[in-house]
Amino acid sequence: SPAETVTGTVADNVSGGSGPYTYALLSSATGSHGTLTLNADGTYSYTLTAPVDGADANNGTNTVNNVESFTYQATDANGNTVTSTITIDVVDDVPTAHANTNSVAEGAIATGNVLSDATDDVFGADGAAAGGGVVGVAAGSNTASPVSGGLGGAGIAGTYGTLTLNANGSYSYDGFANAVPAGGATDTFVYTIMDGDGDLSTTTLTITLSDGGLAAANDDATVNEAALAIGSNPASPAETVTGTVADNVSGGSGPYTYALLSSATGSHGTLTLNADGTYSYTLTAPVDGADANNGTNTVNNVESFTYQATDANGNTVTSTITIDVVDDVPTAHANTNSVAEGAIATGNVLSDATDDVFGADGAAAGGGVVGVAAGSNTASPVSGGLGGAGIAGTYGTLTLNANGSYSYDGFANAVPAGGATDTFVYTIMDGDGDLSTTTLTITLSDGGLAAANDDATVNEAALAIGSNPPSPAETVTGTVADNVSGGSGPYTYALLSSATGSHGTLTLNADGTYSYTLTAPVDGADANNGTNTVNNVESFTYQATDANGNTVTSTITIDV
Questions:
Q1: Three-state DSSP class for 325?
Q2: From CA 135, how far away is CA 165, in angstroms rounded?
Q3: What CATH code is carried by the domain that includes residue 421?
Q4: How far apart are CA 337 and CA 150, in angstroms?
Q5: In which band, very low, low, confident or very high, does the pLDDT at 188 lie, cut at 50, 70 and 90?
Q6: Residue 89: partners with Cβ closer than 8 Å, 6 or more residues away
Q7: Same domain, yes or no, for 198 and 112?
Q8: Domain, as residue range, for 136
């Protein structure tokens, strides 16, 4: 602009005397702020060469009157003179602050300079005030009045962050973490600048913030209860699972760091979460309770751990690592035993041959066996029937106890010649209610107990009325023990028929020895058969019983 120079004439200001007039400066042409050139015809020009500072330069009108004056003399044609002045007023130059903007992600830091970013703030001829030019800052958007103070130091808290603005215009805006709503937001501040003679201008700095959008999905991991040291497969490493939550986190500004907010020690195991998001969980205790027998053999949501992901700007999000446990279940292994007909077999279904396995949950309270029944159908579990009088099978009675011990008492004289099997099903239960059903099969061998008939002879002549009464031949002794085979000795013997026959008396001892005494003569057609011996005069039925209660019958036949 050429407005630093003004031209004019003093010729119009002179009157009287006798013209024409001539004009000349009496004072110096060089003033404190500019230079005046006065021509003889009264025209002049003034050029401002230095700004005008001081209290009067900020008088509210922005025009400083009487900045300086120059004395001139007018001389008429007759030599008469008069003096007067040319006074210079200066329109004060004022600063102009231009609105500033910046943008930043949630929780991040934005920097800039309000004096020089985008459109520069203008201080004009007076320059910036001593110290920098910015004289105040405040939160808000009201520019109607200047602000002062608030510069540097701890800064000015806005809605979504803190602004630290310095006198030289430099600033930093530190966004609050986790503060910006999903659609983004703006944070506005007003600041005031001052020029060298105290003129002020106020405008805004607006920070546009974007929502970080930090999000984290839950993580789910599964371990196997069977892999515990007390489980059914302790050699397996499946009690430990590893993973990472890093894949579950999105948004924000990476890199992310991770930390547990909850205890690392859960009710059933321990979680280790590393700063990079990798983790490992180790199951240390079995999972019991109703959910542990839910038909799927996996117990979901056994425990969970809360973690926090933090992005590079300090924004945080929380989520969980949930642990599922594959329930360890019991396994009942089929049992066998063998026994002779009528004998007793004992054992323990939990520990004989291949042990039944209860796994990590252990046996149910009371022993582990919860039911027994005759038969071989393992499709469904059985309950009850333990102890007491036992369960009757086809060939014997099984008494099974909760602790697995049993006795099988075979029925005597029940097994066919080729042998037989008697099968029972039993069910075991682990500590959290899981069931397993299998069989106990008893193989029975036929006792094969047999007894041949015995034949004994007495002499009728030895009767007191006989032809040879001194002879003892009316009595015979013997044993049936040699006639019995099979079964399981020792054997015992007993008469089933009367000991008193029609011609004599038989005495049979428990060890099988016997004696027969003829007490009456034998008459009839057979008694004169030409051989003088009458066969099968009478017979006695006896029973042999083996150690297992099996029995067989046979006869002792008396010839006379």
A1: strand
A2: 10
A3: 2.60.40
A4: 95
A5: very high
A6: 63, 64, 65, 66, 67
A7: yes
A8: 100-210
Query: Strand ranges (DSSP E) for 413-481?
Result: 420-429, 435-445, 450-451, 454-457, 475-479
- Residues 510-544 have pLDDT tens digits of 999 999 999 999 986 666 665 689 999 999 999 99
Task: Of 559, 555, 558, give the one whose Cα is nearest residue 453.
Answer: 555
SS3 234: coil
In SS3 terms, 42-66 reads as CEEEEEECCCCCCHHHHCCCCEEEE
pTM for this predicted structure: 0.70
Which 3 state secondary structure label does DSSP give 14? coil
Place of tokens 């005495």: 507
- If you search the block for the tokens 């309000």, which residue do you land on? 114
454-502 pLDDT, tens digit each:
999 999 999 999 999 999 999 999 999 999 999 998 999 999 999 999 9
Residue with tokens 């019995």: 484
Taking a C-beta distance cutoff of 8 angstroms, is the pair 326, 222 a contact?
Answer: yes
Q: Which of 422, 445, 468 is the last residue of a domain?
A: 445
Do 352 and 439 sit in the same domain of this protein?
yes
CA distance 184 to 1: 44
CB neighbours of 532 closer than 8 A, spacing ≥ 6? none
Helix (H, G, I), strand (E, B) or coil at 247: helix
Domain limit, last residue, from 411, 445, 479: 445
Average pLDDT over residues 371-377: 98
Q: Please say whether the beta carbons of 124 and 195 come within 8 A.
A: yes
Q: How far is CA 422 from the centre of its chain?
A: 48
- The CA-to-CA distance between both ends of the chain, in Å, stands at 172
CB-CB contact of 235 with 219 (8 Å):
no
Q: Which residue has the tokens 């037989």?
A: 420
Give the integer Cα–Cα distance in Å for 548 and 449.
11
Q: Where are the beta strands (DSSP E) in 341-404?
A: 344-348, 369-374, 391-392, 396-400
- Run of H or E including 281: strand 278-283
